[in-house]
Amino acid sequence: MKHVLLKLEPLIWFLFGQGIMLGTILLTAWIAIVGLAIPMGIVDASALSFGRASDLGGHLIGRVVLAALCILPLWKGAHHMRHMLIDSGGADRDATMATLLYLVATVGSVLAIVAVVRL
Amino acid sequence: MARAAHPHAMQSAKPSSTRTAPPMMPAQFPSSGRYRAYTLFGATGIVYLLLGFVTLRVVWALGSGEAAWNNLMSQLQNPLYIAFHVLGLVSVLFVGVRFFSLFPKAQPPRIGPAKPPPAPVITAGLYAAWIGVTVLLGAILAGGLF
Predict the structure, then answer these.
(1) Distance between CA atoms of residues A47 and A53, nearest Å
(2) B94 — contact with chain A (CB < 8 Å)?
(3) What pTM did the predictor assign?
(4) How far apart are CA B62 and CA A53, in angstroms?
(5) Residues of chain B numbered 22-61 and touching chain A (CB < 8 Å)
(6) Sign of CA dihedral B143, B44, B99, A104
(7) What structural domains and CATH numbers belong to chain A?
(8) Which of A84, B26, B96, B144 fits A24 for a cystine, CB–CB 3.0-4.6 Å?
(9) Where are the domains of chain B?
(10) Average pLDDT over residues A106-112
(11) A21 touches chain B (CB under 8 A)
């Protein structure tokens, strides 16, 4: 498994890097509006009524942005958690834990693609 | 408290004739000195992983119809969700500020035939992109555009 992880390292690092860069750039407004401003009543809930949200999310650009918002943070999270575990003395279990974390990110990514396809 | 590091950490590929001390974790690891920011940066991974799944839940609800969407929007008003999103926003801002300050230092001296731009130009470009996308996406999501 370690050999496979090493082979996949360029792809994992690419997704990790984009998770930090693009994930952070996109998540700021997403959390501020969808996670905080609308639930707290600062922005009127009609801004993301079902009809408007469907129109925005159903557009090709909307689907790409939503997919990026789901997938990139998963890979940033999985890879950073792997390295936290190594730093915390878990290097002997790295192959197992890395496989588990990347599996979680992979399943989440596949579900995210399915989610944006069915919009 | 210093403790033994992983025995293979920083190990050379071939045995060396130079005797070296066994690798040790720095005494300040994980929560003192410069390691505090390093550890917090790594810990944001947990928040990002959860943010990815919460976002997935939002997108899934949108594809499941109006009742599911309205139900989810009500659930997001739960104080636990609000507290998580406050933590998420703090994490995202921390990661952005830290990463965008590290990014220019991580550039190679040359990229093909070209030299990368000066560090202040790279940093300014990253912040411009961050602020620009945040304002644009925020305006769209809040109903101010389109």
Answers:
(1) 8
(2) no
(3) 0.90
(4) 7
(5) 29-30, 39, 41-56, 58-60
(6) negative
(7) 2-117 (1.20.1300.10)
(8) B96
(9) 35-132
(10) 98
(11) yes
The Cα–Cα gap between B12 and B88 comes to: 39
Query: For B35-132, CATH number?
Result: 1.20.1300.10
What does the alpha-carbon distance between residue B130 and residue B125 come to, in Å, rounded to a whole number?
A: 9
Q: How many helices (H) and strands (E) does chain A have?
A: 4, 0
Could you report the per-residue pLDDT of A8-45, keeping only the tens digit for each? 999 999 999 999 999 999 999 999 999 999 999 999 99
What are the pLDDT digits (tens) for B49-106? 999 999 999 999 999 999 999 999 999 999 999 999 999 999 999 999 999 999 999 8
For residue B19, the distance in angstroms to the closest alpha carbon of chain A comes to 24
How does pLDDT run across B122-145, given as a tens digit for each residue? 999 999 999 999 999 999 999 988
What is the complex's ipTM, to 2 decimals?
Answer: 0.95
Burial label for A79, CB within 10 Å (0-12, 13-18, 19+), is buried
